[in-house]
Specification:
The complex is a heterodimer of chains A (428) and B (246). Chain A has 428 residues and is an alpha+beta fold. Chain A has helices at 2-15, 17-45, 79-86, 123-127, 140-144, 154-161, 231-243, 263-272, 285-317, 319-327, 332-367, 380-407; strands spanning 57-60, 63-67, 72-75, 94-99, 102-108, 111-120, 132-135, 149-153, 171-174, 177-185, 199-202, 219-224, 253-258, 412-414, 417-419. In chain A, strands 5, 6, 7, 8, 9, 10 and 11 form a seven-stranded mixed sheet that branches. In chain A, a hairpin with a 2-residue loop joins strand 5 and strand 6 (111-120). In chain A, helix 1 (2-15) crosses helix 11 (332-367), helix 2 packs antiparallel against helix 9 (285-317) and helix 9 (285-317) crosses helix 12. Chain B is of the alpha/beta class. Helices cover 41% and strands 25% of the residues of chain B. In chain B, the strands form two sheets. In chain B, strands 6-7-8-3-9-10 form a six-stranded mixed sheet. A four-stranded antiparallel sheet of chain B has the order 2-1-4-5, covered by helices on one side. Chain B contains eight helices and ten strands. Chain B has one domain (2-244): Rossmann fold. The chains are: A alpha+beta (428), B alpha/beta (246). Chain A binds chain B through residues 1, 4, 7-8, 11-12, 15, 320-321, 323-334, 409-418, 423-428, and chain B through 35, 37, 40, 42, 44, 64-70, 72-73, 76, 78-79, 98-99, 102-103, 105-107, 109-111, 113-115, 117, 119, 121-122, 126, 129-131, 133-135, 179, 183, 189, 191-192, 195, 223.
Chain lengths: 428, 246
């Protein structure tokens, strides 16, 4: 029976090519946009190298001070705060501290290179999963000794040395300071805000005064729990530690909020929905997902409504067939099933076309150098998303027309005359 | 001894046939059908009492709008009466659910329409297979075999892969008859089956229906405007203004 439905669905599609094209275009274009967004989202926030252990990682990136006069200060924390109150946490497996990255000038002959430089501790390399092409990371001795060593990415090696081979031991000069290259890693996309840089050097070589006591700075902490299940314990201990941080100006400062959150909350939702998130329990992710879900739903609504409209007119065209099927034993439920199968078939075609379009779009974006080292790709997770969204399309746009179809009476009469419904009704 | 036995068995067959002919297949009792709109009430059938026996071939005649269509719709369980009861093969069906009615239609009734109502996007074989799609427990192979057998009966086994648009009117109606036969129904309801055909093709179709009735004992109710065709059937019922007049 399924084969019969599919054969018929294919024939119906071919019968009205223009409407089929409009339906498929609506679905595939919408899906393409959704898939591109999902691919970019996945690329930025998904568990990809070097942030492979995201399921058991927390990030402390911003602290927020409320002033008594109603003012606010939102700032990355100082090294002092992280080193004294976060690194000393007992529940996590590890705590790494790194600076945010900043474009730093470097010169190759007369050519200026703006290299993104990040200062890190030794634990940074253990917490994250960088792929080393040559050499190795710097360790505790180099960090303690403030050794002028660097790990650079492959593109920097090529740009600075003209090759990515045999660069270990050579010196790269950044901001007029020479660093000996100790390792070369695969490029990390610029959208991986926590791990990305062109050059990583020991945190102790930073020009900042790491001993300065104060809340604000330019650093972040990467906290790895022993397991995903242990994250709440780590967060609870983190909050206890935060309560021990003294307010430097208690006369004017009212409260300090500082949270260890999963990646997406740390980077985006905790800041974006701050009026709702002054609470360790609410990191804003639920609000963000609700908004994203609603936007996606609205975005899908237009092509879905278009499809509903086309489907209803298709059903009216096929009322004779519906009448015949009912006459020969189809129940309302069977007809709903048939129409949903046909519609899911149509939307699946649209979904596959959308997947193809999304692939092309992502290739174009990846190749355009808009985002450094971005390499967007369609993985199985995104393919699963596409199938899921397609299914939603198929069901949402098919249910109402299918219901209408199943309610169609094969024989109906009105007024004085027997009316022919789609030419089906028996003669009168 | 043998001729006597044959004589006896023939006699037994004839007796069985007579007793079968006296068993009601479709029984309408006090059937009323009223169509109601906001302003107009139309009585399509007015207290119709009619019995069609098993194996009978009955034709229904009457002017347009006299209720023939409604009668056939009610007999085919495609519509519900406003009043009265319908019995199919001795079972009252008035309280049947949509699912039960669909099952009864699928197993007991075959429809033939004036305009054939074949699905143009399906091949001849797929069209004929259609009633069997809704019958549980049949494999694809069985469905195909039955569809082939039905097409064989109407002499169209060479056209299985054709599409309706590639056939003549007479051939299309024969496909429609094969579709009605595929499920081996005991009742065939034919709505002006020769109405869209020329006289030669009309005769062919009529012969086919007569053959089905005589050789397979199928109960047939045929609506027609053609007196000649109607007189070929066992019984002629005339309708006028929603009532049976003869």
């Amino acid at each position: 029976m399924l084969l019969s439905y599919l054969k018929l669905a294919w024939k119906v599609l071919l019968r009205r090519k223009f409407f089929t094209f409009i339906s498929l275009f609506g679905i595939s274009f919408t899906l393409m946009v959704l898939l591109v967004v999902v691919a970019m989202f996945d690329h930025t926030f998904g568990a990809h190298a070097p942030e492979t252990n995201l399921d058991r990682m927390l990030f402390a990136q911003f602290l927020h001070v409320k002033f008594k006069d109603g003012g606010n200060m939102n700032t990355p924390p100082s090294y002092h705060v992280l080193n004294k109150y976060v690194r000393t946490l007992r529940t996590p497996e590890s705590v790494a501290i790194a600076s945010n990255f900043h474009a730093t000038p470097s010169y190759v002959g007369n050519r200026k290179l703006d290299l993104d430089l990040r200062y890190t501790d030794a634990m940074f390399w253990k917490a994250l999963d960088f792929k080393f092409l040559q050499g190795k990371a710097f360790g505790e001795p180099e960090v303690k000794g403030a050794a002028r060593v660097a790990v650079i990415n492959q593109s920097t090696a090529r740009q600075y040395f003209g090759t990515d081979q045999g660069v270990l031991g050579r010196t790269i000069e950044i901001n007029q300071i020479g660093y000996r290259v100790q390792g070369v890693v695969e490029d990390v996309p610029a959208m991986r805000f926590i791990s990305y840089a062109d050059v990583w050097v020991p945190i102790t070589t930073s020009p900042d005064d790491l001993q300065r006591i104060g809340l604000n700075g330019d650093y972040l902490a990467i906290i790895t729990a022993k397991s995903a299940a242990d994250l709440p314990n780590v967060q609870a201990e983190f909050q206890r530690a935060v309560r021990a941080i003294p307010l430097p100006d208690p006369k004017n400062m009212k409260r300090l909020n500082f949270y260890a959150d999963p990646l997406l909350a740390a980077i985006f939702s905790r800041q974006a929905f701050r009026q709702f998130t002054d609470d360790p329990e609410n990191d804003g992710l639920a609000i963000m997902y609700s908004i994203l879900g609603s936007v996606a739903l609205l975005f899908m609504l237009l092509p879905a409504l278009n499809l509903v409209n086309i489907n209803v007119s298709r059903i009216m065209e096929r009322s004779s067939e519906i009448g015949v099927r009912k006459a020969f034993g189809a129940t309302g439920g069977t007809l709903v099933g048939q129409f949903l199968v046909e519609n899911i078939f149509l939307t699946t075609l649209g979904g596959l076309a959308g997947l193809g379009l999304a692939y092309v779009a992502l290739q174009l974006i990846s190749g355009s150098d808009l985002l450094a080292y971005a390499h967007f790709e369609l993985n199985w997770r995104i393919f699963g998303w596409a199938l899921f969204v397609t299914l939603i399309f198929g069901v949402v746009s098919g249910v109402y027309p299918a219901f209408k179809m199943s309610r169609l009476q094969p024989a109906r009469a009105a007024a004085n005359n027997i009316e022919r419904l789609g030419g089906f009704a028996l003669s009168g | 001894m043998e001729p006597t036995l044959t004589k006896n068995s023939l006699l037994a067959d004839a007796t069985a046939s007579i007793s079968l002919k006296n068993t009601p297949m479709i029984k309408l009792t006090d059937i009323e059908k009223v169509y109601q709109t906001d302003t107009i009430e139309t009585v399509a059938l007015n207290r119709v009492n009619l019995t069609i026996n098993k194996g009978e071939f009955v034709s229904v005649m009457g002017p347009s709008g006299c209720g023939k269509s409604t009668l056939l719709s009610l007999m085919g369980l495609l519509d519900e009466p406003t009043g009265g009861t319908i019995e199919i093969d001795g079972r009252p069906v008035t309280s049947y659910s949509d699912k039960e009615l669909a099952r009864l239609r699928n197993h007991k009734i075959g429809f033939i329409f004036q305009s054939f109502h074949l699905i143009n996007d399906l091949s001849v074989l797929d069209n004929v297979e259609l009633p069997l799609l809704y019958r549980a427990g049949l494999s694809g192979k069985e469905r195909r075999q039955r569809a082939h057998a039905a097409l064989d009966k109407v002499g169209l086994s060479a056209r299985t892969r054709h599409f309706p648009s590639q056939l003549s009117g007479g051939q299309r109606q024969r496909v429609a008859i094969a579709r009605a036969l595929a499920g081996a129904p005991e009742i065939i309801l034919a709505d002006e089956p020769t109405g869209n055909l020329d006289s030669v093709m009309g005769d062919e179709i009529m012969d086919l229906l007569l053959g089905l009735n005589r050789h397979e004992g199928t109960t047939i109710v045929m609506v027609t405007h053609d007196e000649n065709m109607a007189h070929k059937t066992e019984r002629l019922i005339r309708f006028f203004d929603g009532s049976q007049v003869s």
